[in-house]
Design goal:
The protein has 777 residues and is mainly alpha-helical. The protein has 38 helices and ten strands. A five-stranded parallel sheet has the order 2-3-4-1-5, sandwiched between helices. The chain has a three-stranded antiparallel sheet with strand order 8-10-9. Helix 6 packs parallel to helix 7 and helix 31 packs antiparallel against helix 32. It starts with a helix and ends with a helix.
C-alpha cells in the first residue's frame, strides 16, 4: 500500500473517531440516543478506544512509508550491477609505453581520460584493456556505449542516457524527458556509486558532456578520432602506430608465435608495410592464421604491391579500407578534395604550398582544410607547415583520387606540383622533388618532369649517390618518353657520371658510350664533346689508357673549337690525371700547365693545382709539388669543397711520406678518409684505406698496415673495382712477405694478378718487383 492510501485511511478513521467520541460524551453526561441506538449505547466507549488504536497504528505506518521515501536507495545487489564491458580480444599486444603513461595519469586521480588517434590505431582495444585492468576498483559495475561518432548518424546522448538509467535500475517513468533532465537523473543515480564507464568512438564534446558523472567516484574512458579537450578535468592521450617490436608481438598474437619466429624478417616487413597500424597488423595476422599453407613471406610479397595492399588488408567484414572510408564520408566536399589530392603526393612529408598546388586551390583554404584533417587524425603535422599521411591513408587517398576524379585531373594535379617544385626547390625538399619526378615519369607526364630534373640535380649533396642515380635514370626515361634524342644524350651523360662518382665504374661506361653515339648521329659537336669527356673519364677510371686518352684528347680539341674554356680546362685536368696515373709526368705537365692558363673558377683550379703537384712529385720536383699542394688546399678551404680537399690531403700525405714523416702522412690519409666518408665518396674511402696501408707498410708498421689494406680490399670488392682490389692485394702480399708469411704472400700475389690481369700500371710493375725481391731473399 502506498503512502497516499494510508493518509486517506487516517482521515476516515479520524472522522469516525470524532463522531463516536461525541456520542460517548453525550451518553456519559445523561444524554439520550435515538431508540434504535439506545440498546447499544454501552458500546460507545469501547468503539472510541478501538478507533483510537487504529488511528495510532495508521499514523505509525504512514511515518515509516515517509522515511522509506527519503532514505537513500540501497546499491543494487551484486548480480544486478551493470557489467557491460565487451570481452577483450585475445590478440591484444604491445602498447607497453602507452599503458605505463596512462597508468601514471590515472593514478594521479584523473577521472576522464580521452584516447585520441587515427582510424585503426587501436583506441578501442587499449580502452578496453585499461577498463578490464581497473574494473575491480569500481565495485558498482561498468557501463559501455558505442557512440558512432565517426559515422554520419552518431548516437544521440539522450539515447545513451536512457539505456544507462535502465541498466542502473531507474524506473521507466523516470527515463523520459530532454537531454538535460536525463543527464541530471544520471548524475543523481551515480552520485554515490563507483562506476567505470567506457564511451567508444565519440564525436565531440557535445555528445560526451551529458554522459559524464558529476562526482569523483567514477572513471570515464573516451575514445575518439577527434581531439576532445573541452571536457572538465579530462586528460587526452594521442596514440600513434606501433613500434616494430610491438607490431611483431601483435602479429604473433594474431598469426601464431611459431610462424612469426620462423620468419622474423618477413614478419618485420609485414609490420612496416602496415605502417605499424594495429588494425592492419591484426588483419594480416588473422589472414595468416586462416591460411596455414601460406608462408609469412608470401603475405609480405602480396602486401608489397601498393596497388593491392588495401585489398589484402581485409578479413570477412573487417577491412582497413572501410575504416578509412567511414571518416572520409563524413568530410565536407572541400576537405574530401584536399584529402585525396594532397594524399596523392608522392613524397613522405609535404608543405602547405605543395598541397595547394595539388589541390588547385588558394593556399589559405588548403591550410585550413589540412588543419581540420589534422584535428580528426587523417593527417599528421610533424612541424609547422609540414604534413604527413600514414602510408595506408596515403594509399586510400590515391584510391579516392582515381575513383572520384577524371584521369585528366590526375595529370593536372601532378603537373601543378612539378611546376611548383620547379620554382620553389630547396635542399629541404630533395626527397619530395625526386619522388615527384619519378611519379611523373611513371605517369607519362614527361615534359614537366624533364624541366624539374636540372633543378633536382642542383639540390643534391655530393654524397647523394643513390638519389643522383635514381634521378638520372628517371631523366633518361623522361627523354625517351618525349622522343627527344638531344635530351636523352644529356641524361645518359648524367647517368654515367652518377655511376662513376658513386664508385660503380663498370656501369658508368655504357651510358657514356651510348651518349657519344647519339651525339655523332645527330651531328651535335657540343653534345659529342661533352659525351666524349664523360666517356674518357669512365675509361680512365677503368684503367683503359688508350681509349681514355683518345676520348679526352678529342673532347679537349672540340671544346677549344667551341671556345668553351671551362670545359677545355676540365678535359685537360682529366687527361693530366690519366698521364699521372701511368707515371708520365712529362706528358701531364704541359697539358695541366695549359689548363692552368685557361680562365675558370677556383673549383677547377683546385684540380689543376693538385694534378700539377702530383706531376712535379713524379718528376722529382719535391718543393714545387709541396708549394702547389699548399695552394690547392687553400682553394679547397676557400670553396668549402671537402671532396677535393680529401684528395689534396692524400697528396700532402704522400709528400710527407717521401720526407719520411710517416706520422704526418698517416694523419693526412686518415683525415681524407673521414672527409670521404662524410661526403659518401665510396671510391675515395677505398683509396684512403689503401694509401694509409701503404704508408704504414713503408714505415715498417706491418700489423697496422694489414688492417688498413684489408679494409681497402673489402671496399674495392664491394665496388666491383677489380683493378684497385688487385693493387691493394698486391701491397698486402708484400706486407705478408715482410712478416715472413711467404706462403700466404704467394697466394695473395696470385689472387692479385688474376684481378689486375693485363692492366699495365707502372706502380703495379714496381710492386711486383719489390715483392719478388722479398720472396727470393
Amino acid at each position: 500500500m502506498r503512502r497516499g492510501q494510508v493518509v486517506v485511511l487516517i482521515a476516515v478513521t479520524s472522522g469516525l473517531l470524532s463522531v463516536l467520541l461525541a456520542v460517548a460524551v453525550n451518553v456519559a453526561t445523561g444524554g439520550v440516543l435515538p431508540a434504535p441506538l439506545d440498546a447499544v449505547s454501552w458500546m460507545a466507549w469501547p468503539a472510541v478506544g478501538l478507533l483510537a488504536g487504529v488511528g495510532v497504528w495508521l499514523t505509525v505506518w504512514q511515518q515509516r512509508l515517509a522515511d522509506a521515501d527519503v532514505a537513500p536507495r540501497p546499491a543494487p545487489a551484486p548480480d544486478t550491477r551493470p557489467a557491460e564491458l565487451p570481452a577483450l580480444g585475445a590478440g591484444f599486444a604491445g602498447r607497453a609505453g602507452d599503458i605505463a603513461r596512462l597508468g601514471r595519469i590515472l593514478d594521479r586521480g584523473c577521472r576522464v581520460l580521452v584516447l585520441v588517434g587515427p582510424p585503426g590505431v587501436g583506441k578501442s582495444s587499449l580502452a578496453l584493456w585499461i577498463a578490464h585492468e581497473r574494473k575491480a576498483r569500481f565495485p558498482d559495475g561498468q557501463l559501455f556505449a558505442v557512440l558512432r561518432g565517426a559515422h554520419a548518424d552518431p548516437v544521440a546522448p539522450e539515447t545513451v542516457l536512457q539505456r544507462f538509467l535502465g541498466a542502473l535500475g531507474v524506473p521507466d517513468d523516470e527515463r523520459s524527458g530532454g537531454v538535460d533532465d536525463l543527464a541530471a537523473r544520471f548524475r543523481t543515480a551515480v552520485a554515490d556509486r563507483k562506476l567505470l564507464i567506457v564511451l567508444d568512438d565519440a564525436r565531440d564534446t557535445a555528445q560526451v558532456r551529458p554522459l559524464l558523472p558529476g562526482g569523483t567516484g567514477c572513471l570515464v574512458l573516451v575514445t575518439s578520432r577527434r581531439l576532445i579537450t573541452e571536457l572538465p578535468g579530462a586528460a587526452a592521450h594521442t596514440l600513434g602506430g606501433l613500434a616494430e617490436g610491438e607490431g611483431m608481438a601483435l602479429l604473433a598474437a594474431a598469426a601464431g608465435r611459431r610462424r612469426v619466429d620462423a620468419e622474423p624478417e618477413a614478419a618485420a616487413r609485414i609490420v612496416r608495410l602496415c605502417g605499424g597500424l594495429p588494425l592492419a597488423v591484426r588483419i594480416a595476422g588473422s589472414r595468416l592464421r586462416a591460411r596455414p599453407a601460406w608462408t609469412v613471406a608470401d603475405l609480405a610479397a602480396r602486401l608489397a604491391d601498393e596497388r593491392h595492399r588495401l585489398d589484402e588488408l581485409r578479413l570477412g567484414d573487417v577491412a582497413v579500407r572501410s575504416t578509412f572510408a567511414t571518416s572520409y564520408r563524413d568530410l565536407s566536399t572541400v576537405d574530401q578534395l584536399v584529402f585525396r589530392r594532397a594524399g596523392s603526393h608522392p613524397g613522405r612529408v609535404l608543405t602547405t604550398g605543395a598541397a595547394a598546388a595539388l589541390a588547385g586551390m588558394p593556399l589559405p583554404d588548403v591550410a585550413a582544410a589540412l588543419e581540420r584533417l589534422v584535428d580528426i587524425h587523417l593527417v599528421e603535422t610533424p612541424a609547422p607547415d609540414k604534413y604527413w599521411f600514414h602510408d595506408l591513408l596515403r594509399l586510400f587517398a590515391t584510391e579516392r583520387l582515381a575513383a572520384d576524379e577524371r584521369p585528366e585531373e590526375h595529370v593536372a594535379c601532378l603537373t601543378r606540383l612539378l611546376e611548383w617544385y620547379t620554382t620553389h626547390a630547396d635542399r629541404g625538399e630533395r626527397d619530395n622533388i625526386l619522388a615527384a619526378v619519378h611519379r611523373a615519369v611513371e605517369a607519362g607526364v614527361c615534359a614537366p618532369a624533364w624541366a624539374l630534373v636540372s633543378v633536382a640535380n642542383a639540390v643534391l649533396e655530393p654524397g647523394d649517390h643513390a638519389e643522383r642515380l635514381a634521378l638520372w635514370q628517371d631523366a633518361v626515361a623522361a627523354a625517351v618518353g618525349l622522343g627527344d634524342d638531344h635530351k636523352r644524350a644529356a641524361a645518359l651523360r648524367g647517368l654515367s657520371t652518377a655511376y662513376r662518382v658513386a664508385g660503380d665504374l663498370t656501369n658508368s661506361l655504357e651510358p657514356a658510350r651510348e651518349s657519344v653515339a647519339i651525339a655523332r648521329r645527330r651531328g651535335d659537336r657540343r653534345a659529342e664533346a661533352e659525351a666524349l669527356f664523360v666517356y674518357g673519364e669512365a675509361q680512365r677510371d677503368l684503367y683503359r689508357y688508350s681509349d681514355a686518352e683518345d676520348a679526352l684528347k678529342r673532347a679537349q680539341q672540340l671544346f677549344a673549337e667551341l671556345d668553351d674554356a671551362g670545359m677545355e680546362k676540365r678535359a685537360a685536368i682529366s687527361l693530366g690525371t690519366l698521364y699521372n696515373m701511368y707515371g708520365q709526368p712529362e706528358r701531364a705537365l704541359p697539358v695541366l700547365e695549359r689548363g692552368l692558363a685557361l680562365p675558370a673558377a677556383d673549383a677547377s683550379d683546385i684540380w689543376v693545382l693538385s694534378g700539377l703537384s702530383t706531376a712535379y712529385k713524379l718528376s722529382g720536383r719535391h718543393d714545387d709539388a709541396v708549394a702547389l699542394n699548399a695552394r690547392a688546399m687553400e682553394l679547397c678551404g676557400r670553396a668549402g669543397d671537402d671532396f677535393a680537399l680529401g684528395y689534396a690531403l692524400q697528396e700532402r700525405g704522400w709528400l710527407a711520406s717521401d720526407d719520411r714523416r710517416y706520422d704526418d702522412a698517416v694523419a693526412d690519409m686518415r683525415r681524407s678518409l673521414a672527409l670521404f666518408e662524410g661526403v659518401k665518396h665510396s671510391l675515395g674511402v677505398g683509396i684512403a684505406y689503401e694509401s694509409t696501408g701503404e704508408v704504414l707498410a713503408t714505415a715498417g708498421r706491418y700489423a697496422e698496415a694489414l688492417v688498413e689494406l684489408d679494409a681497402a680490399v673489402a671496399q674495392f670488392d664491394l665496388l666491383r673495382d677489380r683493378v684497385r682490389c688487385g693493387k691493394a692485394r698486391l701491397t698486402r702480399a708484400r706486407v705478408l712477405a715482410a712478416l715472413g708469411r711467404r706462403d700466404e704472400a704467394r697466394a695473395e700475389w696470385a689472387a692479385a694478378d688474376r684481378l689486375i690481369a693485363d692492366v699495365a700500371l707502372p706502380e703495379v710493375a714496381r710492386e711486383r718487383q719489390r715483392l719478388g725481391d722479398l720472396l727470393s731473399a
